């Protein structure tokens, strides 16, 4: 019993260490080594006689739940949720439900990584396949977290490598999943080198496995550094862009008596234009009104564009029939407000809509008050590019940028620049702000596009096609950032092939699972035949 408890504790510590780079980005190396003890333990441990897979799942749960608690610890900084009008008890319940509940949901599926590793060990599979199997399983797990409204791909291993941009340039090849694959594959070969050394196996094997880990890590790093050294060969149109950060708290943003929101955005936009900004991006719902109902918004935005001699992307709402959308609109300095809107495609559960509203509000009625609006927002269905005088712009709104498929579809539809409008005011100054901005960095590298990110309270940034931040405004600061951006039409390999690495990983795991399952049955059948012959 004591030995089992120590094992569970070890897995929990490893899970917490694996998530440390999300909190302290300078410790990015932890992502490469924290899973090594788990891989070693799973391979060298003796096979459990009773309930081996249940025990394996529990070990995996300890790892991934600790991982999630560290990753999502910023939920605790949101208390007391003043902006949502909760009483202290309800606010505490919501914070704990999010902080403890999201890691719980994710751990339920992620724990099967360890279950599959247990299966691998019990089938006496070849040692050399171990790293490949583990890496493919991790890729599948990250991808699963993008599915359904329960999915939240916040904890990609690539996010923990933001401090070391050379480590994630390979996302331009096969996406952020490929970065995770490389990290776990490296961990796998490190584990093999330790296992063979522990077993006093051939010294050549130990050295060979260690060299494999070193080669994979070095090759990824060399590619990344070379990619950072050489600019893209597109040579598209270059302009100066600005992102406006109005820095209004959530209470102020939704207070109808706050009229200086408009004047602040106007003043900051004109100041940015005086510094040469030709394209100015505002945050999500910077104008918290329905554009087709509050008619003066058109005139107001066009007036600013004409005075600034710069084009705008503004955030607001729109009603179409009985549907309510969170949108951005393009305002040309020459022709005024365009007719087409981009509608947010990935909505925040319990923030912009209540999933399974009838059931959830009956079971947890206090969650009905967490949404900021009286009615559910409807998700947009397509990229709805803005065809501008500078080039084609793909707009993303807040939560959109966390899911790679949104940026991917925008670029495939022809976007040459990405603009993200977001409102992270409820995050305060927590680590969530930096993690959310890191998602935008990944999207830039994956698609090979510059990104202009305008956040209400921060972090606003100008990001190059390599993921480098050319300018950034700290959280809870009023102002703007400016920088030169390039309209790029050349596609990265990832833009072309999409999530093929996920599908290859799934195929690999299915193949290996089927192979060793069939092999085990065949061996069992042969053994039975041999016993019968001996008896005969």
> What kind of assembly state do the chains in view correspond to?
single chain
Secondary-structure content class: alpha/beta
The tally of strands reads 12
Order of helices and strands: HHHHHHHHHHEHHEHEEEHEEHEHEEEEHH
- Measured by DSSP, the beta-strand proportion falls in 5-15%
Helix coverage percent of residues?
40-55%
Approximate shape: globular
Query: How many helical elements?
Result: 18
What is the gyration radius calculated from CA atoms?
A: 26 Å
Largest sheet: 6 strands, mixed
> Could you say how many structural domains there are in total?
2
Going across the major beta sheet, what is the strand order? Answer: 5-4-3-2-1-12
**What does the average pLDDT come to?**
89
